[in-house]
Amino acid sequence: RRETMNGAPDTALLVEQLRKQIADLKSPEEPNFLNSDETLVRFLKSRDWDMEATEKMLRKTIAWRIEFRPFALDCNHCRTHPGSHTLRQIGFDQANRPVIYATFYSAFPSQRNPAVEALTHLIYVFENAVRSMQPGVSQWVFVLDCAGADVRDAQRHKSLSIGPRETTDQ
What we know:
This protein is an alpha+beta fold. Helices cover 39% and strands 10% of the residues. It has two domains: 11-71, Helicase, Ruva Protein, domain 3 (Orthogonal Bundle), CATH 1.10.8; 73-160, no CATH class. Helix 5 links the parallel strand 2 and strand 3.
């Protein structure tokens, strides 16, 4: 990895190098996704500035985004039952990072969403958090309020209803 004199990664050089390596990669419905320095820096950071791992992750991400279209998601439950989700972005902290709040307290069994709808909402919240981030912001604050949680909520068959567990290559 390229570093500046103080040992920090030379982000401008790494972004330029990454851009050359992914020049063939297109995101037709999101032309600005790969043009954003902030996006490329987030991907580089997430792979500890490893160019090969970052490129691999970006290629998989673009393929997933083309197939799944997370940028076009609309959470129907948010429209029909505003404020009923137990996961939502509630604003920004003093460092201008998105603050996402999740609680079990109001997640009564009668209000729990089917697994696919819950996953759709999660992606919807995360996509909106990324869109709301100002330049230079690359972190979120995630508050998980476990009040009201019950061991019955952690049953394995419930988590498997979303789909098989996947791991990421590093």
